[in-house]
Specification:
By secondary structure, the protein is of the alpha+beta class. Among the domains are: about 190 residues, Deoxyribonuclease I, Chain A (4-Layer Sandwich), CATH 3.60.10; about 70 residues, no CATH class; about 60 residues, no CATH class. Helices cover about 35% and strands about 10% of the residues. It has 19 helices and 17 strands. It has a six-stranded mixed β-sheet with strand order 3-4-5-6-11-8. Strands 7-10-9 form a three-stranded antiparallel β-sheet, with no helix packed on it. The N and C termini lie far apart (about 90 Å).
């Protein structure tokens, strides 16, 4: 059916439901709009999409490939035939499995409509002809007979079955147990449709875990207090364990007798709503319907919380697109403070800093249980933490956890085809390769390869975007860094930024790129400080100038003479508005080439010979020779 939603709303919905992929056709004005959402279990190819039809080819590891078509029939009858023509062109040569569903804005016979005219119209005839041409059959449905109504009482009320699920014989034979359910409408004039390919099959019981949706019930806190009120004896960890274990039967009993099964309650309310909405137009009890809808909204809110807890996915977005690199430093004083036994307040802060629904374990109590009922549970939790850190005792049951193996490829068959779950690192021999210098004898290569059981060869030229082999020229090896930095900056709307904004942008992107490379290779860097120790006229501080000094006399007489007075420390940028009155354009252009640090730091002297700024006898000799050659070339 039509979504009437912009793409940003579909994106928000996909994140809320933890569905990774979607395709959206936005509405035209206040009507129309289509969307298809799917998770990574399916491989979906978009064949065509417009404001009336979305056609896909889908497959998965547990289902044979099939075609999937979503339809929104044109609301204008005169234009509806164009939609049927498009469907006929799609299904003309489609003999493979095909399912077609949506709001067709048309019906096949008069008994699919209540109220209004019941005569067979030209549109109904054309709809039937399209179904016959495409060899599509109606899968039927369980639930209300009609899927749309105009929400009017009395003789003007109209209800029609506009939404349906169709398939060809190939799909139907593949999914003989498939069932279609029409659910009651809430907040819309259309009823939602659910296709269950497994025929509403049920599964076995699941393990206990505290449901966050229970917090919406006023009696939840009392149940938690009752479960925690037992007074077991023994060690600290044993007492905490017994209280945790007692939560399971207490909450299970309360859930069965009071809270109830949210799915069953929703189904019961939906059936009551179906009976009311399945009646003739104008005959429903509107007061009772509003009561059921209100109760359904509460149960649906609880169910939504339950689904969010099951997904345990947090969606985050970096609004700047840039990262911050930090280098932690822990001195002896701070280290001693970190090694101290935490106070009760520190333990509470640690508990409350955890994600409420993160780290679910076999005991069934996520962090939200302790956060919401801290006044009840704090004594045992604090005692347990202090006992553990004081005596370094590890209770067996407290360390139990769930392990979920994540496959790295479709249909994994061996353990190494799953992502590692331990904090240790191991060499993957199948992904490794031995590389030797060109003058290594082949016999030596084969011998090492046999001993280590790793194949040898040239190997990849790059890994994670960095060169795997370095020649004599590091400039050539890392030439691509500058190109990548420029590419990152091209996507920004730099015309809208101030001068300070542009400098911060360039520094942040360049710093991020440079730090990544510098973490793997030892690169030479230029170091610039805050300028407080540098005399702008007497010191050597401009790398681009001969002798590294100012070449032209001052243009204006200013009192200050330190380079720091030319720097805006709050933004770490040059004060060009002042400098253009002080320096000659030649010197000013050279100063502009000096990149200031992102954060202020002290000045320090460096040797100009090698790129690392360190003095060696060899570098001094090279500087002297270079200066001598320059003098010789200057002489006539």
């Amino acid at each position: 059916m039509e979504t009437k939603s912009k793409e940003r709303k579909i994106l928000s919905l996909s994140r809320k439901l933890a569905i990774e992929h979607y395709l959206c056709v936005e509405p035209q004005g206040a009507s129309g709009g289509l969307a298809m959402l799917w998770n990574s279990k399916f491989q979906v190819q978009n064949l065509s999409a417009n404001n009336r039809i979305m056609d896909f080819h889908a497959s998965s590891n547990h289902m044979n490939p099939f075609f999937l078509t979503s339809v929104y029939g044109d609301p204008i009858p005169a234009l509806r035939q164009a939609v049927w023509n498009k469907l006929e062109s799609i299904g003309a040569n489609r003999n493979e499995r095909w399912i077609c569903f949506g709001d067709f804005n048309s019906y096949v016979s008069w008994h699919k409509k209540s109220g209004g005219r019941t005569t067979i119209t030209k549109d109904v005839t054309q709809f039937r002809e399209m179904l016959n041409s495409c060899h599509l059959m109606d899968l039927g449905a369980h639930g209300p007979r009609y899927t749309w109504r105009n929400n009017r009482a009395g003789p003007t009320g109209i209800q029609i079955r506009l939404d349906r699920v169709l398939s060809n014989s190939a799909w139907r034979l593949e999914h003989e147990d498939a069932v279609v359910f029409v659910k009651p409408e809430i907040g819309s004039d259309h009823n939602p449709i659910i296709i269950d390919t497994e025929g509403n099959a049920t599964h076995g019981p699941r393990s206990f875990h505290f449901e966050a949706m229970c917090l919406r019930h006023s009696g939840c806190s009392g149940v938690a207090a009752k479960a925690w009120s037992i007074t077991p004896t023994g060690t600290v960890d044993h007492r905490l364990k017994e209280k945790i274990v007692n939560c399971k039967p207490t909450f299970q009993k309360w859930n069965k007798e009071t809270f109830g099964n949210v799915h069953q309650k929703i189904n019961s309310l939906m059936k009551d709503l179906e009976i009311l909405q399945d009646g003739e137009a104008g005959s429903t009890n509107q007061v009772r319907e509003k009561e059921i809808i209100s109760a359904s909204e509460e149960e649906l809110s609880r169910q939504e919380i339950m689904f969010q807890q099951k997904s345990r996915i947090e969606w985050t977005m970096d609004k700047n697109g840039a990262g911050i690199s930090t280098e932690p430093m822990v001195d002896s004083t701070l280290n001693a403070a970190l090694c101290e036994i935490p106070s009760p307040d520190e333990i509470k802060k640690a508990i409350f800093s955890m994600g409420p629904l993160k780290a679910p374990g076999p005991d069934g109590l996520p962090p939200i249980f302790y956060q919401k009922f801290w006044e009840v549970t704090y004594s045992e939790v604090v005692d347990f933490v202090i006992e553990f850190l004081t005596h370094n005792r590890r209770p067996e049951a407290m360390n139990d956890t769930f392990i979920c193996l994540i496959p790295k490829c479709p249909n994994p068959e061996t353990v190494d085809q799953f992502r590692p779950i331990t904090s240790g690192q191991a060499v993957n021999c199948e992904k490794s390769i031995l590389t030797f210098s060109p003058n290594t004898p082949p016999k030596i290569k084969r011998w090492f390869s046999k001993i280590l059981k790793i194949k040898h060869g040239a190997g990849p030229q790059k890994y994670l975007g960095l060169p795997t082999l370095l020649g004599l020229s590091k400039v050539q090896a890392f030439r691509e860094i500058g190109a990548k930095t420029a590419k990152c900056l091209q996507g920004w709307k730099h015309q809208l930024l101030s001068q300070a904004g542009k400098e911060v942008l360039i520094k942040s992107v360049a710093l991020l790129m440079n730090n990544f490379v510098a973490a793997h290779f030892k690169l030479s860097k230029a170091h610039h400080g805050n300028g407080e120790q540098i005399h702008k006229w007497a010191d050597n501080w401009i790398p681009g100038n001969p002798s590294f000094k100012i070449q032209y006399p001052r243009l204006e007489d200013y009192e200050f003479d330190r380079v720091s007075q030319l720097i805006d420390v709050s933004n770490m940028r040059w004060k060009f508005e002042i400098m253009q009155d002080i320096f000659h354009p030649f010197d000013l252009a050279a100063i502009k080439q000096i990149h200031l640090p992102l954060f202020p730091r002290e000045d320090r002297q460096v040797w100009t010979g090698p790129r690392n700024g360190k003095f060696t006898v060899k570098s001094a000799y090279e500087v002297i020779c270079m200066a001598q050659r320059s003098d010789d070339q200057a002489q006539p």
